[in-house]
Design brief:
Blueprint lengths: L2 H13 L11 E5 L2 E4 L7 E12 L2 E11 L4 E11 L4 E11 L4 E12 L2 E11 L4 E4 L3 E5 L2 E5 L1 E5 L4 E11 L3 E11 L4 E4 L3 E5 L3 E4 L1 E5 L4 E11 L3 E11 L4 E12 L4 E11 L4 E13 L4 E13 L6 E14 L2 E11 L4 E5 L3 E4 L2 E4 L2 E7 L2 E8 L2 E6 L5 E6 L1 E7 L2 E18 L5 E17 L2 E8 L3 E5 L24 H8 L2
Antiparallel strand pairs: 1-3, 2-3, 3-4, 4-5, 5-6, 6-7, 7-8, 8-9, 8-10, 9-12, 10-11, 11-13, 12-13, 13-14, 14-15, 14-16, 15-18, 16-17, 17-19, 18-19, 19-20, 20-21, 21-22, 22-23, 23-24, 24-25, 25-26, 26-27, 26-28, 27-30, 28-29, 29-32, 30-31, 31-34, 32-33, 33-35, 34-35, 35-36, 36-37, 36-38
Protein backbone atom coordinates (compact mmCIF):
# COMPACT_ATOMS: atom_id res chain seq x y z
CA UNK A 1 0.00 0.00 0.00
CA UNK A 2 1.58 3.29 -1.09
CA UNK A 3 1.29 6.75 0.41
CA UNK A 4 -1.23 7.93 -2.14
CA UNK A 5 -3.54 5.10 -1.24
CA UNK A 6 -3.21 5.87 2.44
CA UNK A 7 -4.09 9.50 1.81
CA UNK A 8 -7.13 8.31 -0.13
CA UNK A 9 -8.14 6.17 2.84
CA UNK A 10 -7.94 9.21 5.09
CA UNK A 11 -10.15 11.14 2.72
CA UNK A 12 -12.66 8.32 2.80
CA UNK A 13 -12.57 8.25 6.57
CA UNK A 14 -13.08 11.93 6.99
CA UNK A 15 -15.32 12.61 4.02
CA UNK A 16 -16.98 9.29 3.27
CA UNK A 17 -20.40 10.89 3.18
CA UNK A 18 -19.62 12.78 0.04
CA UNK A 19 -18.62 9.80 -2.11
CA UNK A 20 -21.97 8.03 -2.41
CA UNK A 21 -25.51 8.82 -3.45
CA UNK A 22 -28.08 8.85 -0.66
CA UNK A 23 -31.09 6.89 -1.94
CA UNK A 24 -34.19 7.38 0.16
CA UNK A 25 -35.95 4.08 0.69
CA UNK A 26 -38.85 2.97 2.78
CA UNK A 27 -38.41 1.83 6.37
CA UNK A 28 -40.32 -1.36 6.92
CA UNK A 29 -41.69 -2.42 10.30
CA UNK A 30 -41.25 -6.19 10.32
CA UNK A 31 -42.28 -6.89 13.89
CA UNK A 32 -43.53 -5.36 17.14
CA UNK A 33 -45.53 -6.99 19.92
CA UNK A 34 -47.63 -3.83 20.17
CA UNK A 35 -47.98 -0.68 18.10
CA UNK A 36 -49.97 2.52 18.66
CA UNK A 37 -49.90 6.27 18.16
CA UNK A 38 -49.23 8.68 21.03
CA UNK A 39 -50.36 12.27 20.31
CA UNK A 40 -47.96 13.49 22.98
CA UNK A 41 -45.11 12.33 20.77
CA UNK A 42 -46.57 13.83 17.60
CA UNK A 43 -49.31 12.96 15.23
CA UNK A 44 -46.99 11.05 12.86
CA UNK A 45 -45.09 9.20 15.57
CA UNK A 46 -45.79 5.54 16.08
CA UNK A 47 -44.83 3.81 19.30
CA UNK A 48 -43.54 0.25 18.90
CA UNK A 49 -43.20 -1.98 21.96
CA UNK A 50 -41.63 -5.44 22.34
CA UNK A 51 -39.29 -7.30 19.96
CA UNK A 52 -39.16 -4.48 17.47
CA UNK A 53 -37.65 -5.35 14.07
CA UNK A 54 -37.26 -2.75 11.30
CA UNK A 55 -35.53 -2.77 7.94
CA UNK A 56 -34.21 -0.23 5.49
CA UNK A 57 -32.58 -1.60 2.35
CA UNK A 58 -30.51 -4.58 3.54
CA UNK A 59 -29.95 -3.20 7.06
CA UNK A 60 -32.00 -4.51 10.00
CA UNK A 61 -32.73 -2.66 13.26
CA UNK A 62 -33.66 -4.46 16.50
CA UNK A 63 -34.72 -2.96 19.85
CA UNK A 64 -37.00 -3.52 22.85
CA UNK A 65 -39.09 -0.49 21.82
CA UNK A 66 -39.01 2.39 19.39
CA UNK A 67 -40.59 5.69 18.33
CA UNK A 68 -41.01 5.97 14.56
CA UNK A 69 -42.00 9.05 12.60
CA UNK A 70 -43.42 7.89 9.29
CA UNK A 71 -43.23 11.34 7.75
CA UNK A 72 -39.60 12.21 8.60
CA UNK A 73 -38.40 8.61 8.57
CA UNK A 74 -36.72 9.26 11.89
CA UNK A 75 -36.89 6.79 14.73
CA UNK A 76 -35.51 6.23 18.24
CA UNK A 77 -34.71 2.74 19.48
CA UNK A 78 -34.61 1.84 23.18
CA UNK A 79 -33.07 -1.14 25.00
CA UNK A 80 -31.00 -3.94 23.46
CA UNK A 81 -30.45 -2.00 20.27
CA UNK A 82 -28.92 -4.04 17.45
CA UNK A 83 -28.12 -2.87 13.92
CA UNK A 84 -27.21 -5.60 11.48
CA UNK A 85 -25.53 -3.80 8.61
CA UNK A 86 -24.45 -6.79 6.57
CA UNK A 87 -23.30 -10.35 7.04
CA UNK A 88 -20.20 -9.25 8.99
CA UNK A 89 -21.03 -5.96 10.78
CA UNK A 90 -23.21 -5.74 13.89
CA UNK A 91 -23.69 -2.70 16.13
CA UNK A 92 -25.11 -2.82 19.67
CA UNK A 93 -26.13 -0.09 22.17
CA UNK A 94 -28.78 0.85 24.69
CA UNK A 95 -30.14 3.86 22.74
CA UNK A 96 -30.40 4.64 19.03
CA UNK A 97 -31.36 7.78 17.09
CA UNK A 98 -31.69 7.13 13.38
CA UNK A 99 -32.41 9.43 10.44
CA UNK A 100 -33.88 7.36 7.59
CA UNK A 101 -33.43 10.18 5.08
CA UNK A 102 -29.66 10.63 5.62
CA UNK A 103 -29.14 7.06 6.85
CA UNK A 104 -27.22 8.44 9.80
CA UNK A 105 -27.31 6.80 13.22
CA UNK A 106 -26.36 7.97 16.72
CA UNK A 107 -25.78 5.29 19.34
CA UNK A 108 -25.49 5.82 23.10
CA UNK A 109 -24.31 3.83 26.13
CA UNK A 110 -22.23 0.66 25.97
CA UNK A 111 -21.86 0.86 22.20
CA UNK A 112 -20.26 -2.19 20.54
CA UNK A 113 -19.44 -2.63 16.85
CA UNK A 114 -18.45 -6.14 15.75
CA UNK A 115 -16.99 -6.75 12.32
CA UNK A 116 -15.37 -10.12 11.71
CA UNK A 117 -12.55 -10.25 14.33
CA UNK A 118 -12.70 -6.50 15.01
CA UNK A 119 -14.63 -5.19 18.03
CA UNK A 120 -15.12 -1.47 18.75
CA UNK A 121 -16.34 -0.34 22.20
CA UNK A 122 -17.30 3.18 23.22
CA UNK A 123 -20.01 5.14 24.98
CA UNK A 124 -21.10 7.25 22.02
CA UNK A 125 -20.78 6.56 18.33
CA UNK A 126 -22.19 7.76 15.05
CA UNK A 127 -22.61 5.50 12.05
CA UNK A 128 -23.08 6.75 8.50
CA UNK A 129 -24.55 3.96 6.39
CA UNK A 130 -23.80 5.80 3.15
CA UNK A 131 -20.13 6.33 3.89
CA UNK A 132 -19.79 3.09 5.88
CA UNK A 133 -18.18 5.24 8.54
CA UNK A 134 -18.35 4.70 12.31
CA UNK A 135 -17.07 7.61 14.43
CA UNK A 136 -16.40 7.97 18.14
CA UNK A 137 -15.50 11.51 19.28
CA UNK A 138 -14.53 10.49 22.78
CA UNK A 139 -12.62 7.51 24.11
CA UNK A 140 -12.94 4.22 22.24
CA UNK A 141 -11.33 0.79 22.32
CA UNK A 142 -10.80 -1.57 19.40
CA UNK A 143 -9.77 -5.18 19.87
CA UNK A 144 -8.81 -7.57 17.11
CA UNK A 145 -7.58 -11.06 17.97
CA UNK A 146 -4.71 -10.39 20.42
CA UNK A 147 -4.49 -6.65 19.69
CA UNK A 148 -6.06 -3.82 21.69
CA UNK A 149 -5.99 -0.16 20.62
CA UNK A 150 -7.35 2.81 22.60
CA UNK A 151 -7.68 6.42 21.45
CA UNK A 152 -9.60 9.59 22.29
CA UNK A 153 -11.05 9.81 18.77
CA UNK A 154 -11.49 7.28 16.03
CA UNK A 155 -13.09 6.38 12.70
CA UNK A 156 -13.84 2.96 11.26
CA UNK A 157 -14.71 2.16 7.66
CA UNK A 158 -16.41 -1.23 7.71
CA UNK A 159 -16.37 -1.59 3.91
CA UNK A 160 -12.57 -1.35 3.57
CA UNK A 161 -11.80 -2.57 7.12
CA UNK A 162 -9.64 0.42 8.05
CA UNK A 163 -9.51 2.21 11.43
CA UNK A 164 -8.27 5.76 11.91
CA UNK A 165 -7.12 6.56 15.47
CA UNK A 166 -6.51 10.11 16.70
CA UNK A 167 -5.05 11.52 19.93
CA UNK A 168 -3.40 9.52 22.71
CA UNK A 169 -3.37 6.27 20.75
CA UNK A 170 -2.18 3.27 22.78
CA UNK A 171 -1.92 -0.18 21.22
CA UNK A 172 -1.24 -3.27 23.33
CA UNK A 173 -0.14 -6.59 21.85
CA UNK A 174 1.39 -9.70 23.49
CA UNK A 175 4.99 -8.78 22.62
CA UNK A 176 4.90 -5.02 22.15
CA UNK A 177 3.13 -1.75 22.84
CA UNK A 178 2.49 1.22 20.51
CA UNK A 179 1.95 4.83 21.58
CA UNK A 180 1.10 7.29 18.83
CA UNK A 181 -0.55 10.60 18.01
CA UNK A 182 -2.21 9.43 14.79
CA UNK A 183 -2.48 5.85 13.54
CA UNK A 184 -4.27 4.10 10.66
CA UNK A 185 -4.88 0.37 11.02
CA UNK A 186 -5.61 -1.66 7.88
CA UNK A 187 -7.09 -4.77 9.49
CA UNK A 188 -7.27 -6.83 6.29
CA UNK A 189 -3.52 -6.48 5.69
CA UNK A 190 -2.55 -6.15 9.37
CA UNK A 191 -0.74 -2.90 8.60
CA UNK A 192 -0.44 0.10 10.94
CA UNK A 193 0.49 3.50 9.51
CA UNK A 194 1.79 6.37 11.67
CA UNK A 195 1.21 10.07 10.96
CA UNK A 196 2.70 11.60 14.10
CA UNK A 197 5.20 10.89 16.89
CA UNK A 198 5.04 7.13 17.50
CA UNK A 199 6.88 4.81 19.90
CA UNK A 200 6.94 1.00 19.72
CA UNK A 201 8.04 -0.83 22.86
CA UNK A 202 9.08 -4.47 23.29
CA UNK A 203 11.26 -6.38 25.76
CA UNK A 204 14.50 -5.78 23.89
CA UNK A 205 14.09 -2.45 22.14
CA UNK A 206 12.25 0.84 21.86
CA UNK A 207 11.46 2.22 18.39
CA UNK A 208 10.52 5.84 17.68
CA UNK A 209 9.59 7.74 14.52
CA UNK A 210 7.41 10.60 13.33
CA UNK A 211 6.06 8.81 10.27
CA UNK A 212 6.01 5.24 9.03
CA UNK A 213 4.31 1.88 9.18
CA UNK A 214 4.39 -1.41 11.03
CA UNK A 215 3.38 -4.85 9.73
CA UNK A 216 1.90 -6.68 12.71
CA UNK A 217 2.25 -10.06 10.97
CA UNK A 218 5.86 -9.88 9.76
CA UNK A 219 6.88 -7.41 12.54
CA UNK A 220 8.68 -5.25 9.97
CA UNK A 221 8.69 -1.52 10.79
CA UNK A 222 9.48 1.52 8.65
CA UNK A 223 10.17 4.75 10.54
CA UNK A 224 10.85 8.14 8.98
CA UNK A 225 11.43 11.80 9.82
CA UNK A 226 14.08 11.04 12.48
CA UNK A 227 13.85 7.50 13.77
CA UNK A 228 15.41 5.86 16.84
CA UNK A 229 16.12 2.25 17.82
CA UNK A 230 17.19 1.94 21.45
CA UNK A 231 18.03 -0.73 24.01
CA UNK A 232 19.56 -0.43 27.48
CA UNK A 233 23.12 0.14 26.25
CA UNK A 234 22.92 1.28 22.61
CA UNK A 235 20.95 3.83 20.62
CA UNK A 236 20.75 4.13 16.81
CA UNK A 237 19.23 7.27 15.29
CA UNK A 238 18.72 8.16 11.62
CA UNK A 239 16.47 10.09 9.27
CA UNK A 240 14.98 6.81 8.01
CA UNK A 241 15.03 3.32 9.47
CA UNK A 242 13.77 -0.20 8.77
CA UNK A 243 13.57 -2.76 11.57
CA UNK A 244 12.48 -6.41 11.59
CA UNK A 245 11.81 -7.63 15.12
CA UNK A 246 11.72 -11.32 14.13
CA UNK A 247 15.13 -11.33 12.45
CA UNK A 248 16.67 -8.49 14.49
CA UNK A 249 17.72 -6.73 11.27
CA UNK A 250 17.81 -2.93 11.12
CA UNK A 251 18.80 -0.57 8.30
CA UNK A 252 19.38 3.14 8.90
CA UNK A 253 19.79 5.83 6.25
CA UNK A 254 21.00 9.45 6.34
CA UNK A 255 22.61 11.18 9.33
CA UNK A 256 23.04 7.95 11.28
CA UNK A 257 24.24 8.13 14.91
CA UNK A 258 25.23 5.08 17.00
CA UNK A 259 25.77 5.66 20.70
CA UNK A 260 26.93 3.18 23.35
CA UNK A 261 26.52 4.45 26.90
CA UNK A 262 28.50 1.58 28.42
CA UNK A 263 31.63 2.30 26.39
CA UNK A 264 30.91 6.03 26.12
CA UNK A 265 31.28 5.95 22.34
CA UNK A 266 29.47 7.77 19.54
CA UNK A 267 29.79 6.89 15.83
CA UNK A 268 28.25 8.85 12.95
CA UNK A 269 27.76 7.97 9.29
CA UNK A 270 25.24 8.01 6.45
CA UNK A 271 24.33 4.33 6.28
CA UNK A 272 24.17 1.53 8.84
CA UNK A 273 22.97 -2.05 9.14
CA UNK A 274 22.50 -4.17 12.23
CA UNK A 275 22.03 -7.93 12.47
CA UNK A 276 20.87 -8.17 16.07
CA UNK A 277 20.46 -11.94 16.16
CA UNK A 278 23.97 -12.37 14.74
CA UNK A 279 25.57 -9.77 17.04
CA UNK A 280 26.88 -7.56 14.23
CA UNK A 281 26.52 -3.91 13.22
CA UNK A 282 28.02 -1.96 10.30
CA UNK A 283 28.19 1.78 9.64
CA UNK A 284 29.72 3.50 6.61
CA UNK A 285 29.83 6.58 4.38
CA UNK A 286 31.56 9.61 5.91
CA UNK A 287 32.16 7.66 9.10
CA UNK A 288 33.40 9.55 12.15
CA UNK A 289 33.10 9.05 15.87
CA UNK A 290 34.50 9.64 19.29
CA UNK A 291 35.13 7.81 22.52
CA UNK A 292 34.77 10.21 25.40
CA UNK A 293 36.50 10.04 28.77
CA UNK A 294 36.40 12.33 31.76
CA UNK A 295 39.68 14.07 30.89
CA UNK A 296 40.16 13.31 27.20
CA UNK A 297 38.39 12.19 24.04
CA UNK A 298 39.49 9.83 21.26
CA UNK A 299 38.30 10.96 17.82
CA UNK A 300 38.26 8.60 14.84
CA UNK A 301 37.10 8.31 11.25
CA UNK A 302 37.21 5.70 8.49
CA UNK A 303 35.30 4.53 5.46
CA UNK A 304 33.50 1.71 7.27
CA UNK A 305 33.25 0.16 10.72
CA UNK A 306 31.93 -3.19 11.98
CA UNK A 307 30.96 -3.72 15.61
CA UNK A 308 30.50 -7.25 17.00
CA UNK A 309 28.62 -7.79 20.25
CA UNK A 310 27.18 -10.49 22.49
CA UNK A 311 23.54 -11.15 21.59
CA UNK A 312 22.61 -11.80 25.23
CA UNK A 313 24.53 -9.14 27.17
CA UNK A 314 24.96 -6.61 24.30
CA UNK A 315 28.62 -6.26 25.33
CA UNK A 316 30.93 -5.31 22.46
CA UNK A 317 33.81 -7.76 21.89
CA UNK A 318 35.27 -6.66 18.54
CA UNK A 319 35.50 -3.45 16.49
CA UNK A 320 36.88 -3.41 12.94
CA UNK A 321 37.48 -0.28 10.83
CA UNK A 322 38.50 -0.24 7.16
CA UNK A 323 40.04 2.19 4.69
CA UNK A 324 41.55 5.57 5.52
CA UNK A 325 41.40 4.96 9.26
CA UNK A 326 42.49 8.00 11.29
CA UNK A 327 42.30 8.73 15.00
CA UNK A 328 43.29 11.50 17.37
CA UNK A 329 43.77 11.83 21.10
CA UNK A 330 45.83 14.52 22.79
CA UNK A 331 48.63 12.07 23.68
CA UNK A 332 48.49 9.77 20.64
CA UNK A 333 47.48 9.90 16.97
CA UNK A 334 47.44 7.28 14.24
CA UNK A 335 46.47 6.19 10.76
CA UNK A 336 46.23 2.93 8.79
CA UNK A 337 43.96 1.21 6.29
CA UNK A 338 42.69 -1.56 8.56
CA UNK A 339 42.18 -1.55 12.32
CA UNK A 340 40.88 -4.31 14.58
CA UNK A 341 40.16 -3.76 18.27
CA UNK A 342 39.66 -6.99 20.22
CA UNK A 343 37.88 -5.68 23.31
CA UNK A 344 38.06 -8.97 25.19
CA UNK A 345 41.86 -9.17 24.85
CA UNK A 346 42.37 -5.38 24.94
CA UNK A 347 44.40 -5.63 21.72
CA UNK A 348 44.47 -3.23 18.77
CA UNK A 349 45.78 -4.52 15.43
CA UNK A 350 46.77 -1.97 12.76
CA UNK A 351 47.47 -3.14 9.22
CA UNK A 352 48.42 -1.61 5.84
CA UNK A 353 50.85 1.31 6.24
CA UNK A 354 50.16 1.96 9.94
CA UNK A 355 51.65 5.03 11.63
CA UNK A 356 51.52 6.05 15.30
CA UNK A 357 52.51 9.46 16.66
CA UNK A 358 53.20 9.61 20.42
CA UNK A 359 54.47 12.95 21.71
CA UNK A 360 57.61 13.64 19.61
CA UNK A 361 57.91 10.06 18.29
CA UNK A 362 56.66 8.54 15.03
CA UNK A 363 56.32 4.74 15.02
CA UNK A 364 55.82 2.63 11.88
CA UNK A 365 55.96 -0.96 10.71
CA UNK A 366 54.27 -3.23 8.22
CA UNK A 367 52.00 -4.14 11.17
CA UNK A 368 51.46 -2.63 14.61
CA UNK A 369 49.92 -4.44 17.59
CA UNK A 370 48.91 -2.38 20.62
CA UNK A 371 48.14 -3.77 24.08
CA UNK A 372 45.70 -1.61 26.05
CA UNK A 373 45.52 -1.69 29.85
CA UNK A 374 43.13 0.40 31.92
CA UNK A 375 42.26 2.54 28.86
CA UNK A 376 45.92 3.40 28.22
CA UNK A 377 48.62 1.90 25.98
CA UNK A 378 50.70 -0.69 27.83
CA UNK A 379 52.99 -1.74 24.98
CA UNK A 380 53.25 -1.58 21.20
CA UNK A 381 54.79 -4.11 18.80
CA UNK A 382 55.97 -2.99 15.32
CA UNK A 383 56.99 -5.67 12.78
CA UNK A 384 58.51 -6.26 10.32
CA UNK A 385 60.41 -3.24 9.00
CA UNK A 386 59.93 -1.38 12.25
CA UNK A 387 61.01 2.24 12.32
CA UNK A 388 60.87 4.79 15.14
CA UNK A 389 61.69 8.43 14.47
CA UNK A 390 61.96 11.01 17.17
CA UNK A 391 62.67 14.68 16.82
CA UNK A 392 65.82 15.69 18.63
CA UNK A 393 65.26 18.35 21.28
CA UNK A 394 67.15 20.93 19.16
CA UNK A 395 67.91 19.64 15.67
CA UNK A 396 67.61 16.53 13.53
CA UNK A 397 66.01 13.16 14.18
CA UNK A 398 66.88 10.24 16.42
CA UNK A 399 66.07 6.97 14.62
CA UNK A 400 65.60 3.34 15.62
CA UNK A 401 65.21 0.64 12.97
CA UNK A 402 64.92 -3.14 13.09
CA UNK A 403 62.94 -6.23 12.16
CA UNK A 404 60.84 -5.94 15.32
CA UNK A 405 60.54 -3.17 17.90
CA UNK A 406 58.50 -3.33 21.10
CA UNK A 407 57.75 0.00 22.80
CA UNK A 408 56.68 0.00 26.45
CA UNK A 409 54.58 2.87 27.77
CA UNK A 410 54.32 4.48 31.19
CA UNK A 411 51.87 7.30 31.95
CA UNK A 412 50.99 7.49 28.21
CA UNK A 413 54.64 8.06 27.23
CA UNK A 414 57.25 5.69 25.78
CA UNK A 415 59.41 4.50 28.68
CA UNK A 416 61.71 2.12 26.81
CA UNK A 417 62.03 0.22 23.53
CA UNK A 418 63.45 -3.21 22.74
CA UNK A 419 64.82 -3.52 19.21
CA UNK A 420 65.64 -7.00 17.89
CA UNK A 421 66.82 -8.18 14.49
CA UNK A 422 69.28 -6.09 12.42
CA UNK A 423 68.94 -3.23 14.89
CA UNK A 424 70.16 0.21 13.78
CA UNK A 425 70.14 3.65 15.40
CA UNK A 426 70.99 7.21 14.62
CA UNK A 427 71.31 9.11 17.88
CA UNK A 428 72.13 12.79 18.40
CA UNK A 429 74.39 12.63 21.44
CA UNK A 430 74.31 15.75 23.61
CA UNK A 431 76.04 17.00 26.73
CA UNK A 432 74.13 17.85 29.89
CA UNK A 433 73.91 21.48 28.77
CA UNK A 434 72.37 20.43 25.45
CA UNK A 435 75.44 21.03 23.33
CA UNK A 436 75.95 18.49 20.56
CA UNK A 437 78.76 15.97 21.11
CA UNK A 438 78.16 14.14 17.84
CA UNK A 439 75.86 11.93 15.88
CA UNK A 440 76.14 8.28 16.80
CA UNK A 441 75.58 5.54 14.21
CA UNK A 442 75.23 2.04 15.59
CA UNK A 443 74.32 -1.52 14.62
CA UNK A 444 73.78 -4.65 16.71
CA UNK A 445 71.62 -7.76 16.91
CA UNK A 446 69.43 -6.26 19.66
CA UNK A 447 69.13 -2.98 21.51
CA UNK A 448 67.52 -1.81 24.76
CA UNK A 449 66.61 1.88 24.56
CA UNK A 450 65.62 4.02 27.56
CA UNK A 451 63.65 7.26 27.34
CA UNK A 452 63.01 10.07 29.78
CA UNK A 453 60.59 12.94 29.16
CA UNK A 454 59.95 11.40 25.71
CA UNK A 455 63.65 11.70 24.80
CA UNK A 456 66.21 8.91 24.30
CA UNK A 457 68.88 9.11 26.99
CA UNK A 458 70.46 5.62 27.07
CA UNK A 459 70.99 2.76 24.60
CA UNK A 460 72.42 -0.69 25.37
CA UNK A 461 73.72 -2.81 22.49
CA UNK A 462 73.93 -6.62 22.39
CA UNK A 463 75.89 -8.87 19.94
CA UNK A 464 77.62 -7.88 16.71
CA UNK A 465 78.02 -4.28 17.79
CA UNK A 466 79.21 -1.63 15.34
CA UNK A 467 79.32 1.98 16.43
CA UNK A 468 80.65 5.22 14.95
CA UNK A 469 80.43 8.77 16.31
CA UNK A 470 80.62 11.64 13.82
CA UNK A 471 80.93 15.36 14.55
CA UNK A 472 78.11 17.22 12.80
CA UNK A 473 80.53 18.99 10.42
CA UNK A 474 81.80 15.64 9.05
CA UNK A 475 78.37 14.48 7.90
CA UNK A 476 77.71 14.31 4.18
CA UNK A 477 74.34 15.09 2.55
CA UNK A 478 71.51 13.00 4.08
CA UNK A 479 74.04 10.82 5.86
CA UNK A 480 72.16 11.27 9.15
CA UNK A 481 69.08 9.36 7.81
CA UNK A 482 68.71 5.59 7.94
CA UNK A 483 67.45 3.82 4.82
CA UNK A 484 63.67 3.98 4.71
CA UNK A 485 63.46 7.23 6.69
CA UNK A 486 60.11 8.98 6.09
CA UNK A 487 58.93 11.76 8.38
CA UNK A 488 55.14 12.03 7.94
CA UNK A 489 54.30 15.07 10.02
CA UNK A 490 52.27 16.51 7.13
CA UNK A 491 49.70 13.65 7.31
CA UNK A 492 49.50 13.49 11.08
CA UNK A 493 45.85 13.68 12.27
CA UNK A 494 44.90 17.02 13.82
CA UNK A 495 42.09 17.69 16.27
CA UNK A 496 40.53 20.28 13.98
CA UNK A 497 39.69 17.86 11.16
CA UNK A 498 37.55 15.74 13.50
CA UNK A 499 35.79 18.63 15.17
CA UNK A 500 34.77 20.14 11.85
CA UNK A 501 33.33 16.83 10.65
CA UNK A 502 31.42 16.15 13.85
CA UNK A 503 29.65 19.51 13.62
CA UNK A 504 28.14 18.68 10.19
Amino acid sequence: MNRNYILLILLFLLNGIGFAQKKTTTIHILNADRADYDENLGKDVQRLIGNVVMRQDSTYFYSDSAYYNEKTKFFDGFGNVHIKVNDSTDIYSKLLKYNGETKFAELFHDVILKDDSTVLRTQYMTYDRVGHLATYPNKGTITRNDKKLVSKKGYYRDDIKVVYFRKDVVGTMPDYKIVSDTLVYDTDNEMMYFYGPTTIYNKENTLFGNYGWYNTETELAYLDRRATLKNKEQTMTADTMYYNKKTGYAKALSDVILEDTTYKAVVKGEFAEMWRNEGKCMITDNLRGFYYKENDTLFAKADSMYVFFDTVTNEVHDIKAFYKVRFFRNDIQGKCDSLHYNVADSMVYMRVAPVIWAEDSQLTGDSINIKVKEEAIDNMLMYPNAFVIQQDSIKGFNQVKGKQITAYFKDNEIDNMFNEGNAETVYWLRDDDGSLIGINFSQSATMDIKLKDSQIYNIKYYNNIKETLYPEEQLKDNMEYLKGFLWQEDVKPRREEFLLKLKT
